[in-house]
Amino acid sequence: MKTFGLLVICKLLLLILLSLAHVGKADETTVMISREVNTQESGFAYFIGEKFSHLNITALVKRTAGNSLSCAFFCLNNLVCFSFNFAAFPDKAGKFTCELLSSDKYNNSEGFLPSKTFHHFSMVSPCSNLPCKNNGKCVTIYETNSYVCLCNKGFTGKHCGEMGKDIERSTKQ
What we know:
- This protein is of the alpha+beta class.
- Helix content is 21%, strand content 34%.
- The chain contains 3 helices and 12 strands; from the N terminus they run H-E-E-E-E-H-E-E-E-E-E-E-E-E-H.
- The strands form 4 sheets. The chain has a 6-stranded antiparallel β-sheet, covered by helices on one side.
- The chain is elongated.
- The relative contact order is 0.14.
């Protein structure tokens, strides 16, 4: 029990030190922190920031935060959060709007838009490298750190790089 208490204290101290190091900064682009699943397991998430971008989906939670690191911690403490929008500029009280989101820019690419007021942070995913060819949609499977390409009509294969039978026939004629 003493070991568990020490572990909790160490994590809190780390959180405080990281928060103090980021006070007043609104433009961090990469953040790495851990997500506690239960007392036996934890994992890490890397968030990549896209300045002046916004994922236009309904927020799970909207709150204020002092900096993007705090917003990232809010996201990691919510197991259904996979990305967040963070205000580019503080409000009159010096706080930033933090919108926790249940999806990311890869799985909702049609809602990923330029913004004058927000930065978007998504967890790094295998889809970051754009592995799907021919405008295939990359869907991240976070549990296994893998992905699946959803191919457009006429394309097939793991990366949508192969022509389907209908296209092959039409190009051979």
